[in-house]
Amino acid sequence: MRRYLRVLLVCMVFALISVLYVFSQLASSLETPAGASGSDPQQRAAFHRGGSAHGGRKAPGKPGPEDQHWYNRYIMRKPDSAESGRARDELMHLAVVACGQRLQETLTMLKSAVLFSGRQLHVHIFAEDQLHASFKEALEMWPAPFRSRLNYTVYPITFPAENAKEWKKLFKPCASQRLFLPIILKEVDSLLYVDTDILFLRPVEDMWAFLARFNSSQMAAMAPEHEDPRIAWYSRFARHPYYGKTGINSGVMLMNMTRIRQKLFKNDMTPVALKWEDLLMPLLQKYKLNITWGDQDLLNIIFHHNPESLFVFPCQWNYRPDHCIYGSNCVPAEQEGVFILHGNRGVYHDEKQPAFRAVYEAIQKFKFGDDPVHSLLGPLEERLLGTTHTYCGRVRHLFTKRLAQSVTTVHMDTPKGR
Predict the structure, then answer these.
(1) If DSSP codes are grouped into helix, strand and coil, which group holds residue 40?
(2) How many distinct helices (H) and strands (E) make up the chain?
(3) Which of 103, 226, 347, 394 can bridge 232 by disulfide, Cβ–Cβ 3.0-4.6 Å?
(4) How many independent structural domains does the chain possess?
(5) What is the pTM of this model?
(6) Domain-located, residue 398
(7) Which residues, in sequence order, are CB contacts of 331 under 8 Å at separation 6+?
Protein backbone atom coordinates (compact mmCIF):
# COMPACT_ATOMS: atom_id res chain seq x y z
CA MET A 1 0.00 0.00 0.00
CA ARG A 2 2.82 2.37 0.89
CA ARG A 3 4.48 1.60 -2.46
CA TYR A 4 1.34 2.71 -4.37
CA LEU A 5 1.13 5.91 -2.32
CA ARG A 6 4.74 6.75 -3.14
CA VAL A 7 4.13 6.17 -6.86
CA LEU A 8 0.99 8.36 -6.70
CA LEU A 9 2.93 11.13 -4.93
CA VAL A 10 5.68 11.06 -7.56
CA CYS A 11 3.07 11.29 -10.34
CA MET A 12 1.40 14.26 -8.68
CA VAL A 13 4.76 16.07 -8.36
CA PHE A 14 5.50 15.55 -12.08
CA ALA A 15 2.01 16.76 -13.00
CA LEU A 16 2.45 19.90 -10.91
CA ILE A 17 5.81 20.65 -12.53
CA SER A 18 4.25 20.23 -15.98
CA VAL A 19 1.42 22.64 -15.15
CA LEU A 20 3.85 25.25 -13.83
CA TYR A 21 5.95 24.96 -16.99
CA VAL A 22 2.91 25.50 -19.24
CA PHE A 23 1.84 28.56 -17.26
CA SER A 24 5.37 30.04 -17.40
CA GLN A 25 5.44 29.67 -21.20
CA LEU A 26 2.01 31.27 -21.51
CA ALA A 27 3.03 34.18 -19.29
CA SER A 28 6.21 34.86 -21.26
CA SER A 29 4.27 34.95 -24.52
CA LEU A 30 1.97 37.63 -23.11
CA GLU A 31 4.69 39.86 -21.74
CA THR A 32 4.63 43.54 -22.82
CA PRO A 33 7.35 44.38 -25.35
CA ALA A 34 10.44 46.17 -24.09
CA GLY A 35 9.89 49.88 -23.62
CA ALA A 36 6.14 49.45 -23.20
CA SER A 37 5.87 48.54 -19.56
CA GLY A 38 3.23 50.20 -17.44
CA SER A 39 0.79 51.08 -20.21
CA ASP A 40 -2.78 50.01 -20.67
CA PRO A 41 -3.04 47.34 -23.41
CA GLN A 42 -6.01 49.08 -25.01
CA GLN A 43 -4.22 52.41 -24.95
CA ARG A 44 -1.12 50.87 -26.57
CA ALA A 45 -3.25 49.32 -29.29
CA ALA A 46 -4.88 52.69 -29.97
CA PHE A 47 -1.54 54.51 -30.12
CA HIS A 48 0.22 52.05 -32.40
CA ARG A 49 -2.50 50.78 -34.68
CA GLY A 50 -0.91 50.23 -38.08
CA GLY A 51 2.43 51.57 -36.83
CA SER A 52 5.92 50.18 -36.90
CA ALA A 53 8.79 50.30 -34.46
CA HIS A 54 11.42 52.99 -34.87
CA GLY A 55 14.87 51.93 -33.85
CA GLY A 56 17.31 54.57 -35.06
CA ARG A 57 17.08 58.20 -36.05
CA LYS A 58 15.68 58.75 -39.53
CA ALA A 59 17.00 61.39 -41.86
CA PRO A 60 15.66 64.88 -41.03
CA GLY A 61 12.59 65.86 -42.98
CA LYS A 62 11.31 62.38 -43.80
CA PRO A 63 7.99 62.85 -45.66
CA GLY A 64 4.53 62.45 -44.11
CA PRO A 65 2.86 59.35 -42.71
CA GLU A 66 2.67 56.25 -44.83
CA ASP A 67 0.44 54.52 -42.32
CA GLN A 68 -2.59 55.74 -40.42
CA HIS A 69 -3.04 55.39 -36.68
CA TRP A 70 -6.26 56.41 -34.91
CA TYR A 71 -7.76 57.56 -38.19
CA ASN A 72 -8.33 55.87 -41.51
CA ARG A 73 -8.64 58.79 -43.85
CA TYR A 74 -6.92 62.01 -44.81
CA ILE A 75 -6.75 64.46 -47.70
CA MET A 76 -3.37 64.93 -49.29
CA ARG A 77 -2.25 67.10 -52.16
CA LYS A 78 0.40 65.14 -54.01
CA PRO A 79 3.55 66.99 -55.09
CA ASP A 80 4.23 67.73 -58.71
CA SER A 81 6.95 65.71 -60.39
CA ALA A 82 9.35 68.65 -60.12
CA GLU A 83 8.64 68.89 -56.41
CA SER A 84 9.20 65.16 -55.94
CA GLY A 85 12.69 65.48 -57.32
CA ARG A 86 13.82 67.83 -54.58
CA ALA A 87 16.10 66.43 -51.92
CA ARG A 88 14.27 65.19 -48.84
CA ASP A 89 16.48 67.18 -46.51
CA GLU A 90 15.04 70.38 -48.00
CA LEU A 91 11.51 69.54 -46.85
CA MET A 92 10.29 71.23 -43.67
CA HIS A 93 7.29 69.91 -41.75
CA LEU A 94 4.80 72.32 -40.21
CA ALA A 95 1.77 71.28 -38.11
CA VAL A 96 -1.31 73.20 -36.97
CA VAL A 97 -4.54 72.25 -35.20
CA ALA A 98 -7.72 74.10 -36.25
CA CYS A 99 -11.15 73.86 -34.66
CA GLY A 100 -14.21 76.10 -34.56
CA GLN A 101 -13.85 79.48 -36.26
CA ARG A 102 -10.15 79.15 -36.99
CA LEU A 103 -10.19 78.54 -40.75
CA GLN A 104 -9.26 82.06 -41.89
CA GLU A 105 -6.74 82.52 -39.10
CA THR A 106 -5.01 79.27 -40.11
CA LEU A 107 -4.98 80.21 -43.79
CA THR A 108 -3.42 83.58 -42.93
CA MET A 109 -0.73 81.82 -40.90
CA LEU A 110 0.02 79.50 -43.82
CA LYS A 111 0.07 82.50 -46.16
CA SER A 112 2.76 84.18 -44.06
CA ALA A 113 4.77 80.93 -43.97
CA VAL A 114 4.74 80.51 -47.75
CA LEU A 115 5.08 84.22 -48.55
CA PHE A 116 8.39 84.71 -46.75
CA SER A 117 9.97 81.26 -47.13
CA GLY A 118 12.00 79.98 -50.02
CA ARG A 119 11.98 76.28 -49.16
CA GLN A 120 9.42 73.55 -49.61
CA LEU A 121 6.88 73.05 -46.81
CA HIS A 122 4.76 70.04 -45.96
CA VAL A 123 1.90 71.15 -43.72
CA HIS A 124 0.02 68.73 -41.48
CA ILE A 125 -3.41 70.25 -40.79
CA PHE A 126 -5.44 68.65 -38.00
CA ALA A 127 -8.99 69.96 -38.26
CA GLU A 128 -12.60 69.19 -37.45
CA ASP A 129 -14.36 67.27 -40.21
CA GLN A 130 -16.49 70.21 -41.35
CA LEU A 131 -13.34 72.24 -42.12
CA HIS A 132 -11.60 69.70 -44.37
CA ALA A 133 -13.27 70.66 -47.64
CA SER A 134 -12.84 74.37 -46.90
CA PHE A 135 -9.10 73.99 -46.35
CA LYS A 136 -8.67 72.02 -49.55
CA GLU A 137 -10.76 74.48 -51.58
CA ALA A 138 -8.94 77.53 -50.24
CA LEU A 139 -5.43 76.14 -50.68
CA GLU A 140 -6.09 74.86 -54.19
CA MET A 141 -7.11 78.40 -55.18
CA TRP A 142 -3.68 79.81 -54.39
CA PRO A 143 -1.71 80.91 -57.47
CA ALA A 144 0.46 78.10 -58.81
CA PRO A 145 3.86 79.73 -58.05
CA PHE A 146 2.95 79.94 -54.35
CA ARG A 147 0.94 76.73 -54.10
CA SER A 148 3.91 74.80 -55.50
CA ARG A 149 5.88 75.67 -52.37
CA LEU A 150 3.42 73.85 -50.15
CA ASN A 151 2.13 70.30 -49.88
CA TYR A 152 -0.43 69.52 -47.26
CA THR A 153 -2.23 66.69 -45.51
CA VAL A 154 -5.53 67.23 -43.69
CA TYR A 155 -6.28 64.90 -40.77
CA PRO A 156 -9.31 64.48 -38.50
CA ILE A 157 -9.01 65.44 -34.85
CA THR A 158 -8.28 62.17 -33.08
CA PHE A 159 -7.50 61.16 -29.51
CA PRO A 160 -7.03 57.75 -27.86
CA ALA A 161 -10.53 56.24 -27.87
CA GLU A 162 -10.84 55.49 -24.15
CA ASN A 163 -9.94 59.09 -23.13
CA ALA A 164 -11.08 61.10 -26.15
CA LYS A 165 -13.68 63.23 -24.35
CA GLU A 166 -11.31 64.16 -21.56
CA TRP A 167 -8.54 65.21 -23.94
CA LYS A 168 -10.87 67.16 -26.22
CA LYS A 169 -12.31 69.31 -23.43
CA LEU A 170 -8.89 70.12 -21.98
CA PHE A 171 -8.38 73.92 -22.08
CA LYS A 172 -9.81 74.55 -25.59
CA PRO A 173 -11.38 72.14 -28.07
CA CYS A 174 -8.67 70.23 -29.92
CA ALA A 175 -5.77 72.14 -28.31
CA SER A 176 -4.26 69.04 -26.73
CA GLN A 177 -3.99 67.34 -30.15
CA ARG A 178 -0.44 68.70 -30.35
CA LEU A 179 0.65 66.38 -27.53
CA PHE A 180 -0.04 63.36 -29.73
CA LEU A 181 1.81 64.53 -32.86
CA PRO A 182 4.94 62.43 -32.14
CA ILE A 183 2.69 59.36 -31.87
CA ILE A 184 0.46 60.04 -34.89
CA LEU A 185 3.14 61.28 -37.32
CA LYS A 186 5.49 58.35 -36.83
CA GLU A 187 7.18 58.79 -40.20
CA VAL A 188 8.10 62.44 -39.55
CA ASP A 189 11.48 63.00 -37.94
CA SER A 190 11.25 66.71 -37.09
CA LEU A 191 8.31 69.11 -36.97
CA LEU A 192 7.47 72.73 -36.25
CA TYR A 193 4.11 73.05 -34.48
CA VAL A 194 2.42 76.46 -34.36
CA ASP A 195 -0.92 77.73 -33.06
CA THR A 196 -3.38 79.12 -35.61
CA ASP A 197 -2.76 82.68 -34.35
CA ILE A 198 0.89 82.69 -35.42
CA LEU A 199 2.30 84.94 -38.16
CA PHE A 200 5.75 84.41 -39.65
CA LEU A 201 7.57 87.69 -40.23
CA ARG A 202 10.74 85.97 -41.43
CA PRO A 203 11.33 82.68 -43.28
CA VAL A 204 10.27 79.42 -41.64
CA GLU A 205 13.68 77.96 -42.47
CA ASP A 206 15.29 80.37 -39.99
CA MET A 207 13.28 78.78 -37.18
CA TRP A 208 13.95 75.31 -38.63
CA ALA A 209 17.68 76.02 -38.34
CA PHE A 210 17.43 75.76 -34.54
CA LEU A 211 17.28 71.96 -34.98
CA ALA A 212 20.95 72.00 -35.93
CA ARG A 213 21.73 73.80 -32.67
CA PHE A 214 20.23 71.08 -30.46
CA ASN A 215 22.78 69.24 -28.37
CA SER A 216 22.60 65.45 -28.04
CA SER A 217 19.98 65.54 -25.26
CA GLN A 218 17.66 68.26 -26.57
CA MET A 219 14.50 67.28 -28.45
CA ALA A 220 12.16 70.28 -28.31
CA ALA A 221 12.47 74.07 -28.45
CA MET A 222 10.11 76.73 -27.07
CA ALA A 223 10.23 80.32 -25.86
CA PRO A 224 9.79 81.47 -22.25
CA GLU A 225 6.24 82.27 -21.18
CA HIS A 226 7.49 85.59 -19.81
CA GLU A 227 10.72 87.54 -19.43
CA ASP A 228 10.28 88.83 -15.87
CA PRO A 229 9.57 86.31 -13.05
CA ARG A 230 8.10 89.10 -10.90
CA ILE A 231 5.10 89.49 -13.19
CA ALA A 232 5.08 86.12 -14.95
CA TRP A 233 1.94 83.98 -14.69
CA TYR A 234 3.60 80.69 -13.75
CA SER A 235 5.82 82.13 -11.03
CA ARG A 236 2.83 83.86 -9.42
CA PHE A 237 -0.12 81.51 -9.91
CA ALA A 238 0.89 78.00 -11.04
CA ARG A 239 -0.14 75.10 -8.79
CA HIS A 240 2.07 72.60 -10.53
CA PRO A 241 5.75 72.26 -11.53
CA TYR A 242 6.88 74.36 -14.50
CA TYR A 243 10.04 74.87 -16.52
CA GLY A 244 12.67 77.34 -15.33
CA LYS A 245 11.76 80.62 -13.64
CA THR A 246 8.85 81.70 -15.84
CA GLY A 247 7.59 78.58 -17.63
CA ILE A 248 7.45 78.03 -21.39
CA ASN A 249 4.88 78.93 -24.04
CA SER A 250 3.90 76.14 -26.44
CA GLY A 251 2.40 78.28 -29.24
CA VAL A 252 5.58 77.78 -31.26
CA MET A 253 7.17 74.39 -30.63
CA LEU A 254 10.00 72.89 -32.67
CA MET A 255 10.42 69.14 -32.15
CA ASN A 256 12.83 66.37 -32.99
CA MET A 257 10.08 63.77 -32.77
CA THR A 258 12.37 60.79 -33.27
CA ARG A 259 14.14 61.69 -30.05
CA ILE A 260 10.81 62.29 -28.27
CA ARG A 261 9.58 58.85 -29.28
CA GLN A 262 12.78 57.21 -28.07
CA LYS A 263 13.29 58.98 -24.76
CA LEU A 264 12.29 57.70 -21.34
CA PHE A 265 11.01 60.72 -19.40
CA LYS A 266 11.63 61.30 -15.71
CA ASN A 267 8.45 62.15 -13.79
CA ASP A 268 7.03 62.61 -10.30
CA MET A 269 4.50 59.77 -10.53
CA THR A 270 6.79 56.74 -10.57
CA PRO A 271 10.51 56.06 -10.08
CA VAL A 272 10.41 54.40 -13.50
CA ALA A 273 10.99 56.69 -16.50
CA LEU A 274 8.18 56.52 -19.06
CA LYS A 275 7.83 56.71 -22.82
CA TRP A 276 5.99 59.75 -24.17
CA GLU A 277 2.78 57.84 -24.96
CA ASP A 278 2.77 56.20 -21.52
CA LEU A 279 3.35 59.50 -19.73
CA LEU A 280 0.53 61.70 -20.99
CA MET A 281 -2.60 60.15 -19.46
CA PRO A 282 -1.17 59.53 -15.96
CA LEU A 283 0.13 63.11 -15.99
CA LEU A 284 -3.32 64.47 -16.85
CA GLN A 285 -4.98 62.35 -14.17
CA LYS A 286 -2.60 63.64 -11.51
CA TYR A 287 -2.71 67.34 -12.38
CA LYS A 288 -6.05 67.95 -14.13
CA LEU A 289 -7.45 69.83 -11.12
CA ASN A 290 -4.35 72.04 -10.86
CA ILE A 291 -3.75 73.12 -14.46
CA THR A 292 -5.12 76.25 -16.15
CA TRP A 293 -3.58 76.28 -19.63
CA GLY A 294 -4.19 72.64 -20.49
CA ASP A 295 -1.59 70.95 -22.64
CA GLN A 296 0.88 73.82 -22.20
CA ASP A 297 0.87 73.16 -18.46
CA LEU A 298 1.51 69.46 -19.08
CA LEU A 299 4.50 70.35 -21.28
CA ASN A 300 5.80 72.58 -18.50
CA ILE A 301 5.54 69.71 -16.03
CA ILE A 302 7.31 67.31 -18.39
CA PHE A 303 10.24 69.65 -19.06
CA HIS A 304 10.45 70.70 -15.41
CA HIS A 305 11.51 67.11 -14.72
CA ASN A 306 13.56 66.84 -17.94
CA PRO A 307 15.17 70.29 -18.38
CA GLU A 308 18.13 68.86 -20.28
CA SER A 309 15.75 67.95 -23.12
CA LEU A 310 14.61 71.51 -23.89
CA PHE A 311 16.23 74.19 -26.06
CA VAL A 312 14.94 77.69 -25.23
CA PHE A 313 14.87 80.23 -28.04
CA PRO A 314 14.47 84.02 -27.54
CA CYS A 315 11.14 85.83 -27.12
CA GLN A 316 11.25 87.47 -30.56
CA TRP A 317 10.44 84.02 -32.01
CA ASN A 318 7.15 83.94 -30.09
CA TYR A 319 6.24 87.58 -29.54
CA ARG A 320 2.95 88.06 -27.68
CA PRO A 321 1.00 90.98 -26.21
CA ASP A 322 2.60 90.22 -22.83
CA HIS A 323 5.88 91.47 -24.29
CA CYS A 324 4.59 95.01 -24.78
CA ILE A 325 1.19 95.45 -23.08
CA TYR A 326 2.69 97.16 -20.00
CA GLY A 327 5.88 98.30 -21.66
CA SER A 328 8.49 96.58 -23.81
CA ASN A 329 10.21 93.64 -22.08
CA CYS A 330 11.55 91.53 -24.97
CA VAL A 331 15.10 92.80 -25.38
CA PRO A 332 15.98 90.66 -28.44
CA ALA A 333 12.95 92.09 -30.29
CA GLU A 334 14.06 95.60 -29.40
CA GLN A 335 17.43 94.85 -30.97
CA GLU A 336 16.41 92.87 -34.07
CA GLY A 337 12.64 93.14 -34.40
CA VAL A 338 9.84 90.58 -34.08
CA PHE A 339 10.42 87.34 -35.99
CA ILE A 340 7.20 85.42 -35.20
CA LEU A 341 4.07 87.20 -33.99
CA HIS A 342 1.68 85.34 -31.67
CA GLY A 343 -1.72 86.99 -31.36
CA ASN A 344 -3.02 84.96 -28.44
CA ARG A 345 -6.18 85.84 -26.48
CA GLY A 346 -7.94 86.75 -29.73
CA VAL A 347 -6.14 90.07 -30.26
CA TYR A 348 -6.33 89.75 -34.05
CA HIS A 349 -10.09 90.06 -33.83
CA ASP A 350 -10.77 92.76 -31.21
CA GLU A 351 -9.59 96.28 -30.46
CA LYS A 352 -7.53 95.52 -27.36
CA GLN A 353 -4.20 95.36 -29.22
CA PRO A 354 -4.64 97.22 -32.53
CA ALA A 355 -0.96 96.83 -33.49
CA PHE A 356 -1.32 93.04 -33.54
CA ARG A 357 -4.58 93.27 -35.46
CA ALA A 358 -2.98 95.61 -38.00
CA VAL A 359 -0.26 93.09 -38.85
CA TYR A 360 -2.76 90.24 -39.12
CA GLU A 361 -5.12 92.12 -41.44
CA ALA A 362 -2.27 93.42 -43.60
CA ILE A 363 -1.13 89.86 -44.36
CA GLN A 364 -4.69 88.55 -44.64
CA LYS A 365 -5.67 91.20 -47.22
CA PHE A 366 -2.46 91.01 -49.23
CA LYS A 367 -2.97 89.41 -52.63
CA PHE A 368 -0.41 86.94 -53.92
CA GLY A 369 1.51 88.45 -56.82
CA ASP A 370 1.06 92.08 -55.74
CA ASP A 371 4.04 94.25 -54.88
CA PRO A 372 4.56 93.47 -51.16
CA VAL A 373 6.41 96.71 -50.47
CA HIS A 374 3.52 98.88 -51.64
CA SER A 375 0.62 96.51 -50.96
CA LEU A 376 1.67 95.09 -47.59
CA LEU A 377 4.47 96.96 -45.83
CA GLY A 378 3.38 100.48 -46.80
CA PRO A 379 -0.28 100.17 -45.69
CA LEU A 380 0.81 98.39 -42.50
CA GLU A 381 3.25 101.13 -41.47
CA GLU A 382 0.57 103.75 -42.09
CA ARG A 383 -2.00 101.86 -40.03
CA LEU A 384 0.43 101.30 -37.16
CA LEU A 385 0.71 105.07 -36.79
CA GLY A 386 -2.84 104.96 -35.42
CA THR A 387 -1.97 102.54 -32.63
CA THR A 388 0.34 104.76 -30.57
CA HIS A 389 -2.27 105.15 -27.82
CA THR A 390 -1.29 101.62 -26.68
CA TYR A 391 2.04 100.47 -25.28
CA CYS A 392 2.43 97.92 -28.09
CA GLY A 393 1.70 100.64 -30.64
CA ARG A 394 4.47 102.78 -29.18
CA VAL A 395 6.99 100.10 -30.16
CA ARG A 396 5.39 99.62 -33.59
CA HIS A 397 8.79 99.68 -35.28
CA LEU A 398 9.49 96.26 -33.71
CA PHE A 399 6.63 94.78 -35.77
CA THR A 400 8.07 95.94 -39.10
CA LYS A 401 11.84 95.94 -38.51
CA ARG A 402 12.43 92.33 -39.62
CA LEU A 403 9.29 92.21 -41.76
CA ALA A 404 10.73 94.96 -43.97
CA GLN A 405 13.70 92.72 -44.80
CA SER A 406 11.43 89.74 -45.52
CA VAL A 407 9.19 91.84 -47.74
CA THR A 408 12.16 93.15 -49.70
CA THR A 409 13.26 89.57 -50.39
CA VAL A 410 9.74 88.68 -51.52
CA HIS A 411 9.70 91.77 -53.74
CA MET A 412 12.86 90.58 -55.47
CA ASP A 413 11.76 86.94 -55.83
CA THR A 414 7.97 87.12 -56.26
CA PRO A 415 6.78 85.59 -59.54
CA LYS A 416 4.10 87.59 -61.31
CA GLY A 417 0.71 86.18 -62.07
CA ARG A 418 -2.34 85.39 -59.95
Answers:
(1) coil
(2) 19, 10
(3) 226
(4) 2
(5) 0.80
(6) yes
(7) 227, 315
